[in-house]
Each structure stands twice: as C-alpha cells, then as structure tokens.
Amino acid sequence: MSFSSKPLILRLASFLLLLSIASAAHRPAALVAPVTKDPSTLQYITRLHQRTPLVSVDLAIDLGGRHLWVDCDSGYTSSTYRPTPCRSALCSLAGANSCSRCFSSSRPGCNNNTCGVFPENPFTSTSTSGELAEDVLALSSTDGSNPGALASDPSFLFSCAPAFLTKGLAAGASGIAGLGRTRVAPPSQLAAHFSFRRRFALCLPSTSRGTGVLFFGNSRYRLLPDIDASQILIYTPLLTNPVSTAGTSVSGEPSAEYFIGVKGIRVGEKAIALNKTLLEINRKTGIGGTKISTAVPYTALETSIYNALTAEFALALSHVKRVPAVAPFRLCFEEKGISPTRVGPSVPAIDLVLQRDDVYWRIFGANSMVEAKTGVLCLGFVDAGKSPRTAIVVGGLQLEDNLVTFDLAYSRVGFSSTLFFRRTTCSNFNFTSTA
Ligand SMILES: *[C@@H]1O[C@H](CO)[C@@H](O)[C@H](O)[C@H]1NC(C)=O
Ligand SMILES: *[C@@H]1O[C@H](CO)[C@@H](O)[C@H](O)[C@H]1NC(C)=O
Ligand SMILES: *[C@@H]1O[C@H](CO)[C@@H](O)[C@H](O)[C@H]1NC(C)=O
Predict the structure, then answer these.
(1) For this UniProt entry, which residues form the secretion signal (predicted)?
(2) Is the Cβ atom of 112 under 6 angstroms away from ligand 1?
C-alpha cells in the first residue's frame, strides 16, 4: 500500500461505516431515550448523543421548551458543528430573525453573522441569547420493546448557550431538551428527518433508582412484563394558547407549551366549586388554563383552586390525624392512619375532569401524596399564588409512572393514569439493546 493511497482507503472505510449505520437504522419507526430523576433538584434528565465524534449529553427535560440547547462554553468540540447564518431559511424555521456577532475568537457558540435565538432555563426563569447551529444528534432506534441501533440526524438544529445558563440544572446536565410545539424542537425535527408521525411519549420514573423512558415516533410503548401502554390511553384535545408563555418572545408568538382543557376537579367523585374563568385560556392575554410541565416537581394551583382542593381533601380525610405542615405543602397527615394500596396511599382520588364528565385524569395516592418526612404524608400540590399566568400547572409528581403521549399530528394528549393498576411502572422499559 503506497503512502498516498492511505487517506483514500480511510475515507472509503468511513464511508462504508456511515453506509452501514444508515442502512441499519434506515427509517426507524421510533426512537427511544432513557429518563432519570435527579434526587436533589427533582429534575428529569435524558441522555442523547451529539457531535463528531459522538459524545453523550445529559439534558434536563423541559416539556414546553422551544428547542434543545447545550452549554458550548465547556469544551464543545465537534468536526461537524455548523453555525446557522442569519436571514437563512433555518433561522426563520426557528422563528428568529436577529443577527449575532461575537467579539472573541471563533468557536462553537461564537461566530459572526449567525442566527440568534433565546435558550431558556425554566428552573431559574433565565434566558439569554445563543447561536443557532446544526450538528449530529443520535438516539437509539426502537421497535417499542428494546433499543436498537443508533439512528442519527446529521443536521439537527439546536442552540449553543453560555455556561451560566446551566446554573440551577441537575449536576451533570449540560443543557435542556425543550420538547415544545415548535418546528425546531426534537419532536418535530426528528419526525421530519425520519419521516415518522409527530408524536412522542413521556414516562417519568418516580424514584432516582429507576430509569423511565422517552419515545419519539409512533410505535408500541412496551413495558415489562408485557404491557403495551399505547393501548390503554385516554385522549383529550391539545389546546393552543395564542400568547407565548416563555420568558422572552416576539409579539404574536403562540405558546410552545402543552395545554389541555380541565373543566373541573373532583375529590372522591365530589366536584369542587371553582372559578371557571381561571380554567379558560384568555385568548388576548394568554392567562389562565391548564398546562403540563416537567419544570415544576408538584402541580401548582392558583390560590382559590388550591384552597378549594385542600379543603375538600381535608374533609374527605377528616378521620386521619392532621400533623403540622411541611413546606412547600400545607396539608399533612400522620402516615400510620393511611393504609398503603397498590396505587399508593389510600386517599380519595383526585380527578381532573376534561372535555366531558366521563373523561377524566384520575390521580391516585401514588401521584397525590408525598412522604415529606418520616411518618408524614402530605398532599403533593402547591399554591401558585393569586395571579399565576397559568391557573393549573400539572407537574412532575402527578405525571410519574403514567405514560403521557403528545400527538402533534392529531392535536391530542393521551394519558394512561397510573401504570400501577397494570402492574408495571415507567421504569420497566427493557433497555437491553438488540443492536
Ligand atoms: C467578528 O467581527 C468582528 C469585527 O468585524 C471581529 O473583531 C471579530 O473578531 C469577529 N468574530 C469572530 C468570531 O470571527
Ligand atoms: C374569577 O376569576 C377572574 C379572573 O381572575 C376574576 O376576574 C373574577 O373576579 C373571579 N370571579 C369570582 C366570582 O371570584
Ligand atoms: C429484555 O430484552 C432482551 C433482548 O431482547 C431479552 O433477551 C430479555 O429476555 C428481555 N428481558 C425480559 C425481562 O423480558
């Protein structure tokens, strides 16, 4: 072999390698990523693969976030990083039109005449400007039962944020996977690249020992022992809030968050009196309504709704000894007065009543009670104050061990209620790879 032919052979070898990756993962029906719960911040973290050569990146999940961003200040190296020029089609796809400059040496996140977007950290309510860019993103393909070969999108759009934006994220997380309703968030970008339906599913683990699962695409969602969670869903329409709920936005930009139509709340099948105006999205101001969020650990309710819920819940559990509250909760009980069941502590179910009285998201003890300290169980909802932007924010505890699907193509949200009834959990996806 002559010296000069070596690079050609190398190039041929890597070309063949690329070909084999592409054919093994040709048009996967769906993709899958693990989800863990960080014990100190209670954030949900997913792991994706990015750059060339590929590295794994841990990102906090922000269900309503507008795009994926990573910290590019802390050692981002990749031979395939490409900043997005301003005034380009990709820049308008991201809803942006500003042109960024950078007065330091050129590197990922710092280039001239690039498309500037606004990465946001919802846990600290901070946002800043960042450079829009493309690079390789890879996830495991799946048949819905196991992870298979890695499938990659060579030109995935994300933003490069400064290191300070990761302040407040779980240790090890280098950015945010924003899964919101935009053209550039992973659900739409991956669906466009792999030609699958714009649908994804989130199954959050309830402990930091388990591994939950995030699916993109339309497949079965199989959990051990042999439950196809895609078959047990109840659907409700996905609503659009015409006014952005993000930290920074341009006028006329709709919210990228997932709103559903809660019409009422029942405690132990008894409806509680609520101010219905709060439950509606005001089409002019964007105030009111109900959204689903992974940015809060517990469902947050506007004060009058919170007070009505806790009053009814306290009444229904009046036979159990109350104990002093443990912040941030206000209604706490002696644990020994409440017996355990398969679906958590035996307390009245809380129903979020949706489009009709017989369509409701039922929340059992496992998703309503928190052991706030030894021997003390508290109602795991918090008071969001008198005038929050969104009256009901369904948060982490209430989503755990429920499979929730977001179908952008059909504008609907599907939910399973607790998987404990099916004798499974979100930590039961078989992550043994078949690749
Ligand atoms: C951007 O342009 C300015 C002025 O033209 C220059 O000083 C700066 O070094 C450039 N930055 C990069 C990253 O090339
Ligand atoms: C219901 O809520 C709306 C919006 O906050 C408020 O303007 C109205 O006064 C409330 N109605 C009652 C009866 O409290
Ligand atoms: C998990 O998947 C692997 C690979 O398909 C299989 O061999 C194994 O039996 C599965 N585990 C269980 C508990 O079903």
Answers:
(1) 1-24
(2) yes
At 249 the pLDDT is 83
Domain match, 245 and 214 both: no
Question: Is residue 3 assigned to a domain?
Answer: no
Among the candidates 226, 248, 276, a domain finishes at: 226
Portion of the chain with pLDDT greater than 70, in percent: 94
Residues 216 and 268 in one domain: no
Which of the residue ranges 7-16, 135-144, 179-188, 389-398 would you say has the lowest mean pLDDT?
7-16
- The ligand minimizing its distance to the Cα of 275 is 2
Using the mean position of ligand 2's atoms as its centre, give its distance from the Cα of residue 266 in Å.
Answer: 20
Q: Mean pLDDT, the chain, as a whole number?
A: 93
Statement to judge: residues 395 and 312 lie in one domain: yes
Q: Which of 226, 241, 256 is the last residue of a domain?
A: 226
Q: What is the DSSP letter of 421?
A: G
Q: Give the domain range for residue 270.
A: 228-428
> Nearest residue CA, atom 3 of ligand 3?
432
- For residue 26, the model assigns a pLDDT of 64
Amino acid found at 29: A
Same domain, 260 and 219: no
The pair of structure tokens assigned to 155 is: 């030109």
Query: Which whole-number Å values give the CA distances from 346 to 295, 316, 361, 368, in the listed order?
Result: 27, 12, 17, 10
Q: Domains in the chain: how many in total?
A: 2
278: Cβ below 6 Å to ligand 2? yes
pLDDT tops 70 at residue 7: no
Please name the residue whose Cα sits nearest to atom 8 of ligand 1.
103
Decide: 102 in ligand 1 pocket, CB within 6 A: yes
Bridge partners of residue 290, in order along the sequence:
260, 392
What is the Cα–Cα distance from 51 to 57, expressed in whole angstroms? 10
